[in-house]
Amino acid sequence: MMTDELVTLADWLFKGWQSIGRVIVVGILAYFGLLTIVKISGKRTFSKMNAYDLVVTVALGSTLSTIIVSQQTGVADGLTAVALLIGLQYGVARLSVRWPGFNRFIKSEPTLLFHQGQYLKQAMRQQRVTEDELLAAMRSSGAQSPDDVAAVILENDGSLSVIQGRNVTPVASLQDVQRPGD
After folding, report:
1. Cβ atoms within 10 A of the Cβ of 101, count?
2. I want to staple 160 with a disulfide (CB 3.0 to 4.6 A). Which of 107, 137, 151, 177 is the partner?
């Protein structure tokens, strides 16, 4: 019985040289196939302009992993899945550019979370962002104090933008930003 358990453990740790060879060959083919598809599709493929782009990027990574590791997925099948994801992303991006209504539907608006020394609590609660997270964003942007910051915005890709310099005049780059009560 003990030797059966050892054999099972050994099989679990090392499937054999053929399995490793498959991973190497399929990994190389999948990698260069992905590079080719990305080159054809353009720079926008791996952008982080919004949450949708992030989801596609994660899905592409997962698909590449499946191609390499799963013996049930062939390289052609996997690269077809990659091309499908990139094609769908391309289509969504084109529709977003052509039709503002579709763009509003698919993308979220940036949200103002801090403005002129005031934490906008309602917006922070709605977006599930804490004061500590805003302070961390301010520090990483080089602000020594919240008094040095004009605004903090939760962008549509989930990142926090910090506009430095306490200004009484409206900041032009905030024109498309959702404000509490909007």
Report:
1. 9
2. 137
